[in-house]
TrEMBL record:
Documented EC number(s): 3.2.2.9
Example of a GO cellular component annotation carried by this entry: cytosol
Gene name as annotated: mtnN_1
Name used for this protein in its record: adenosylhomocysteine nucleosidase
Pfam families assigned: PNP_UDP_1 (PF01048)
Organism name: Clostridium chromiireducens
Class of the enzyme per the UniProt entry, highest EC level: hydrolase
Keyword Hydrolase: yes
Metabolic or biological pathway, per its Swiss-Prot or TrEMBL entry: Amino-acid biosynthesis; L-methionine biosynthesis via salvage pathway; S-methyl-5-thio-alpha-D-ribose 1-phosphate from S-methyl-5'-thioadenosine (hydrolase route): step 1/2
Length: 232
C-alpha cells in the first residue's frame, strides 16, 4: 500500500478532496483523515495544516511521524509571479525558497536554511502531472515556488521577489513543508492553483471571484494517482 499525504493550509482547499472520496465508490474511509483505494493500492492522508510556515512545518512533522507517507503533496492556492499567467492556472513546484529567511552571507543560497538537506523532487510524477493538466485543460507552469509569512498583495514587493528568486508562484506554506520533508528524506511537490497575481489587486481579485478553482489541484492529483503509481 503506497501512502500519500495530501495537505492544505485551509479547509476550503482540502474539502474538494473529501468530496471526491465521498462520491467515488473506489475509495473508503478508514478513519477521520485516511482514505483507501484497495484496487490502486493507495492510502491517502488528507489534512489541514493551518496558514503560514510555522503551522505548516509543525503539522507536516506530525504527519510524517504518524503516517510515514512516501510522498507529500501540498494543494491549495498561490499567487502568480510570472508574466502572462491567469487566475485558475496550475503551478507545480520543483524548487522552493523562503523569501523572508535571511541568514549570514556565507555562500548560502538565498531563501535556503544553511545545512538543510536537498529537496526530494518526484520528477517523473511532476512530468505526468503536467501531461494530465493539459488533458484536463488547465494551463500549467512548473518552477520555483517562493514562500513567506505574509499575503503578497504589493506589486513593488512582488517585483523584488521576482528579481531575486525568479519564481512561478508565491504562497505561505510550500517551502516550509518542503524543508521538513527534505530533512526526513520524503518526496514533496506543491500543486496549486492561482487565486490571484500577487499584486496590488490580489485581495480584491480573491474577494470578487467565485469560480471553484480550488477543485483543480485535487482533480489533477487524483487523476494522476490513478494513472501511474510507478511514478511515485
Amino acid at each position: 500500500m503506497i501512502k500519500i499525504a495530501l495537505v492544505a493550509a485551509m479547509e476550503q482547499e482540502i474539502i474538494p478532496l473529501f468530496e471526491q472520496f465521498a462520491t467515488d465508490s473506489a475509495w473508503y474511509q478508514k478513519d477521520e483523515k485516511i482514505f483507501i483505494n484497495d484496487t490502486l493500492g493507495i492510502s491517502v492522508y488528507g489534512s489541514v495544516l493551518g496558514v503560514g510556515k510555522v503551522n505548516a512545518a509543525y503539522h507536516t512533522a506530525e504527519i510524517l511521524l504518524e503516517f510515514s507517507p512516501k510522498l507529500v503533496i501540498n494543494i491549495g492556492f498561490a499567487g502568480g509571479m510570472q508574466h502572462g499567467v491567469s487566475r485558475g492556472d496550475i503551478v507545480i513546484g520543483n524548487d522552493y525558497r523562503q523569501v523572508d529567511f535571511q541568514g549570514f552571507n556565507m555562500g548560502n543560497e538565498a531563501g535556503i536554511i544553511p545545512k538543510s538537506k536537498p529537496y526530494v523532487i518526484p520528477e517523473i510524477f511532476i512530468k505526468i502531472l503536467v501531461e494530465k493538466s493539459k488533458e484536463l485543460g488547465y494551463p500549467c507552469h512548473v518552477g520555483r515556488i517562493t514562500t513567506g509569512d505574509f499575503f503578497l498583495s504589493d506589486s513593488k514587493k512582488k517585483q523584488e521577489i521576482i528579481d531575486k528568486f525568479t519564481p512561478v508562484a508565491f504562497d505561505m506554506e510550500s517551502a516550509a513543508v518542503a524543508h521538513v520533508c527534505a530533512e526526513k528524506g520524503v518526496a514533496f511537490v506543491a500543486v496549486r492553483t492561482l487565486s490571484d497575481l500577487a499584486d496590488d489587486q490580489a485581495e480584491a481579485t480573491i474577494k470578487t471571484s467565485s469560480d471553484n478553482i480550488e477543485q483543480r489541484p485535487v482533480k489533477l492529483v487524483l487523476n494522476t494517482l490513478t494513472r501511474s503509481l510507478a511514478s511515485i
